Each structure stands twice: as structure tokens, then as C-alpha cells.
Amino acid sequence: MTIERIVFAVAGAFIVISVALAHFVSPYWLWFTAFVGANLFQSAFTGFCPLALILRKLGKESGAAF
Which InterPro entries match (predicted)? Predict the structure, then answer.
């Protein structure tokens, strides 16, 4: 699995989990959803993603995006 696929999977999981937490626990979890979305948005333009840096240091293979 490449870095891109892991980043997309983790981001998707964080969004689904935070929306569920917002529904069942507190609406303040939507701030976490917004943070993940904003990070995805800025990485589309800058190519910088903290998770991609961590995965690269762990030796995962990189695809075209990161």
C-alpha cells in the first residue's frame, strides 16, 4: 500500500469517526472534521502532509502525489 492510499484511508476514517462522535457525543467534534478537511485541502496545493512525512520515515513506498 502506498503512502497516498494510507493517507486517504486514515483521513476518511478520521472524518467518519469524528462525524459519529459529533452525532453521539458532542458537536464540538466537527472541529476535528474541519481540521482534517482543511489539511487535505492544503496538501492538495502544497504537497505537504505530516502523515506522509511520518510514513516516508517508516519506509513506506511513495506514489505520485507525495
Answer: YgaP-like_TM
Rounded Cα–Cα distance for residues 34 and 54 (Å) = 22
Per the CB < 8 A criterion, the answer to whether 8 and 57 are in contact is no
- What is the chain's mean pLDDT, rounded? 93
Q: 60: Cβ–Cβ under 8 A, 6 or more apart, which residues?
A: 1, 2, 3, 6
Decide if 52 contacts 66 (C-beta within 8 A): yes
Q: Rounded to an integer, what distance in angstroms lies between the CA atom of residue 24 and that of residue 16? A: 12
Q: What is the DSSP letter of 4?
A: H
Task: Quote the cell numbers at residue 42.
Answer: 492544503
pTM score of the predicted model:
0.85
Closest CA to 64 of 5, 15, 13: 5
